[in-house]
Design goal:
alpha+beta; Pnp Oxidase, Chain A; globular
């Protein structure tokens, strides 16, 4: 059964170190899939990336995305989220990637931030959520 919201019984995936697999569309129409760290603010799924990366360019051009988030404790339990990019911001993006780094790596700060790197938070609005 699909919905437009994240089912309550799957919200724990956003508290765990559950990796997402983000599918975006390349200019030639092929899908491009990238493992990503994920966050949820109660309305949007948040994905943080660097400006200029392929997924950044793809989402700027084509806002339709699909995200699969798998339970690290049970690989047969996962969410498929089909959605649309509802916005993007560079504001507080470094603080956000630091928060995600703490969750996923235990580090207080994102350890791979390059000098001059610009981070961006993409807000993905779920349009169809399929729990498995």
């Amino acid at each position: 059964m699909s919905t437009k919201t994240i089912p309550e019984e799957f919200l724990d995936l956003f508290e765990k170190r559950a990796y997402g697999h983000l599918a975006t569309i390349m200019p030639d129409g092929h899908p491009q899939v990238t493992p990503v760290w994920v966050d949820y603010d109660g309305e949007y799924i948040l994905v943080n990336t660097s400006r200029g990366r392929q997924k950044d360019r793809n989402m700027q051009r084509c806002p339709q995305v699909t995200l699969e988030i798998q339970d690290p404790d049970n690989p047969y339990r996962y969410l498929e989220v089909r959605g649309v990019v509802a916005g993007a911001t560079e504001e507080a993006a470094v603080a956000h990637i630091d928060k995600l780094a703490k969750k996923y790596t235990g580090a207080e700060k994102y350890p791979w931030l390059a000098p001059g790197e610009v981070r961006v938070i993409y807000k993905i609005k779920p349009e169809r959520v399929i729990p498995h």
